[in-house]
Model the fold of this input.
Amino acid sequence: MAWTKYQLFLAGLMLVTGSINTLSAKWADNFTAEGCGGSQEHSFQHPFLQAVGMFLGEFSCLAAFYLLQCRAARQPDSRPDAQQPFNPLLFLPPALCDMTGTSLMYVALNMTSASSFQMLRGAVIIFTGLFSVAFLGRRLAPSQWLGILATIAGLVVVGLADLMSKHDSQHKLSEVITGDLLIIMAQIIVAIQMVLEEKFVYKHNVHPLRAVGTEGFFGFLILSLLLVPMYYIPAGSFSGNPRGMLEDALDAFCQVGRQPLIALALLGNISSIAFFNFAGISVTKELSATTRMVLDSLRTVVIWALSLALGWEAFHPLQILGFLILLTGTALYNGLHRPLLACLSRGRRPAEDGEHERLLGGGRTSINSAS
Done:
């Protein structure tokens, strides 16, 4: 089944903005600047504040949704899509998952390389498959179990590449190991979020901009409030600010004032996440969650290539092997091998249904369903 121009646009938008999102976050982490009160020059390590910025980008999608609604209402010939009534609090559970998982991943990005960060996110397939069996009653095919095993093997290879790579003063071995583990832990939460989002999108006819914006509103509000107690919670060596607290938003603003390029990196992160989340949830609705995960895997190549070109990390051959194994696991799990096998057989037409099978499967029931 051929993609329409709109579907191709969504796929390209997701790939480009997703790559910019990770690279801009890592660019901000690489800056050093003085903080408040004449503190010494130190790295910009403010993962929770960066997560707030990410949710601000998502929240902006809600304003765009209402602007489109007003524009459609002024045109007499256009009829806006019928929106089923829904309780906005239904988006609170995935927003909490997004907030927790994103915060963990921003912390991990301070500790490891951008390419390893992106590759290890492939662990979401493992937990997505297990959760689809446990909570959606789905039976995985043998090829999907092989895909999960291949993903586990790929994660081991990528982890070994991190252990064997040269580590500078910015990324010590202990920090790299901790960062890698945090990324894998975050994928458990991301898998739960995907289960909930899939139910929301397919049960309720919610506009993608409205869905992203609603989640962004909850995440921005809750995490912004949490910045206040984080300012007083000691974190010891886990902290990246001079005061040793879990998060020091004032120190971040002082660093931005002394190094304006940090503001540019944060702005790129905020704007790119707005378009990336809109494109991601639109791809899920217009194509499939399988396509969304494949595109999310492809941007690893872009991030890896640019990180090497910019000199942010050193090349290690094991990363190629690890990425290929992870890519194989993704292809097996999502059934991408079936069209190829059908073409090789020459006697059968590639099954289009397999290409559009949703990643999580299961019935289209809402999480607030009484049954």
